[in-house]
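Q: Given only this backbone (124 positions), what sequence would you predict?
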């Protein structure tokens, strides 16, 4: 099982970034994929998630209307489009996966598979 996250960087407040998570070694049709983030000195928190087969999504209130999660079946990739970025979005962003096509939990402990993080820094 491998999750490879990329796309982070430095952006000004109000700007946009798109993160990618390439997945392998998983039966994706049976899985959900999520994005979490961890700011310095804080706990890891849920950002958004999607069920691979049906495309159902869930978002944290803090990113609703600004972030969009999507998946590309052909590329085995999940994307996180982040618009109108704020300094408080600065964090290490992780993608994660779990078995199940219905429940998308916000508890990081419910997600067994993780990629490495990609840093997002938003300057004011």
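A: Predicted residues:
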């Amino acid at each position: 099982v491998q999750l490879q996250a990329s796309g982070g960087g430095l952006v000004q407040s109000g700007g946009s970034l798109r993160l990618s998570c390439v997945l392998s070694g998983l039966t994706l049709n049976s899985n959900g994929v999520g994005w979490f983030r961890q700011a310095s000195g804080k706990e890891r928190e849920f950002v958004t998630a999607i069920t691979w087969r049906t495309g159902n999504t869930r978002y944290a209130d803090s990113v609703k209307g600004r972030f969009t999660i999507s998946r590309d079946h052909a590329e085995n990739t999940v994307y996180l489009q982040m618009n109108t970025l704020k300094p408080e979005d600065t964090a290490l962003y992780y993608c994660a996966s779990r078995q199940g096509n219905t429940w998308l939990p916000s508890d990081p402990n419910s997600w067994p598979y993780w990629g490495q993080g990609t840093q997002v820094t938003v300057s004011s």
